[in-house]
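User: Could you write out the 3D structure of this protein bound to guanine? I've included everything you need below.
Assistant: Certainly. Input first, then the structure.
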Amino acid sequence: MVAKLIDGKAMAEKQRALLVEEVRGFEKATGRPPGIAVLRAGEDPASRIYVASKKRTAQSLGLNSWEHVLPEQVTQSELLGLIERLNGEEEVDGILVQLPLPKHLDTHAVLRAILPQKDVDGFHPMNAGSLFQGMPTLVPCTPLGVMKMLEEIGCGVAGKRAVVIGRSNIVGRPMAALLLNASASVVLCHSKSDVRAETLRADIVIAAVGVAGLVRGDWIREGAIVIDVGMNRGEGGKLCGDVAFEEVSQKAAWLTPVPGGVGPMTIAMLMHNTVQAAKLRCKR
Ligand code: GUN
C-alpha cells in the first residue's frame, strides 16, 4: 500500500477561509476584531519563527495581535505582571505564552496566571481538566488540529484503536483525551512503553515524541492512519518528523508530511481558539 498524503496546508487554508467570515461577523457585532497577545521570552530561534508565523496569520485574518518580546533574564514577577495587565485588557481575547520559557521561570505558575477564558492554548489546569472530564472549552491547538484532519479524511474515530506516542501537556495528553472523548480506545505511550507492540495493533498512530524517524515501517499495520506531530532538525538542519516517512508511506493508508502536515493546522486552530474566546467573552 502507498499512503495518501494528508495535506495540512490545504486543510488549514480551508479553516482560515471559514474564520475570516467569523472574524467579520464578530467585528460587525462588537465594533472590534478579536485580539490575541503573544508573549515570548528570550531568543530561542524556533520560538521566534513560530511567534512570527502566528502574528502573520492573525493579521492576515483581520485579527488584532500584539507581540510582547521579553528579555531572557525577565523575572517571574515581571512576566506575571504583564499577564495580569493583559488579563484586564478588554480588547485582548487571547493570551499565549510561547514555550519553552527560559529555565529560571516557573512555567506552571505562568500558565496558571492566564485567565482561563483567555487561555487560547488550552493549557490552564481548568481548561485541561474540563477536557479530561469530557467538557472541552478551549482545547490545545495541535491536538485539535489533528482531530480536524482525521475528520477531513473521513476517519470516524469511534471504536478505533488509537496509539499516541509522547505524554506532553502540549500534545500527547490532550490528544489522548480528545480521542477518548470521541470514543476511540486509546493507548498513551511514553519512554517506558513497548511502543512497537502497541503501534502494531493500532488503527491510528499519532507520533508526538520529538525523536527524528522513531516510527519505522515495520511498526505500522497495513492500512493504518499515521499522524506525525514531530518537528525535528535532521542532518543539515532539515526539518523532519518522528516518522520514517519513506518506510511508513509503504504501509499506511494515510500519512501527514513534515513540513506541510500538522504544523499549518496548529496555527489555524490557534486562530479558531482566539475567535472562540472572543465570542465566549462577548457571549456571541
Ligand atoms: N511551543 C511548542 N508548541 C507550543 C504551543 O502549542 N503553544 C505554546 N504556547 N508554545 C508552544
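Residues 96-99, 121, 141-142, 170 surround guanine (CB under 6 Å).
User: Perfect, thank you.
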